[in-house]
Amino acid sequence: AIDLxxxxxxxxxxxxxxxxxxxxxxxxxxxxLGLVSGSNNADSLEGGLGVELSSPLTLGKTSGQIAAxxxxxxxxxxxxxxxxxxxxxAPTTAFTSRGPRTARDSALVGLGVVAAAGKSVDxxxxxxxxxxxxxxxHAATAGLRITW
Length: 148
Fold this sequence. Notes:
Layout: E1 2-3, E2 8-22, E3 25-26, E4 35-37, E5 40-59, E6 62-75, E7 83-87, E8 90-97, E9 105-116, E10 121-132, E11 135-146
């Protein structure tokens, strides 16, 4: 962490892997219109670099901290989750459905606040947005943290 006087800067680094494995299946009860599919897989490996700036926060007798963060994320794999299937009545005529192509780079920005609610109890709230040229994802969390 780097002390900036009234604030602190902290570097952020992340590496995240996610994998999806789906077993094959054959639909029942619809005759030749049912789908048959082999197993399907999708993988993601995402790395990120950024910074978080935090500062003490005092509201009356309540102390806490406010933080703003920004991170550049990069997707290293080019896996868009292809799904291959065929109709039971035409098993040699398979088709492929591809997942959406997302931008390989994105910005993750967020704001968070935590306040002491007791000796070992904190209340927190966070908002994060992942921004891509192909869309955005938003997340808000809030909770109570008890430490012992």
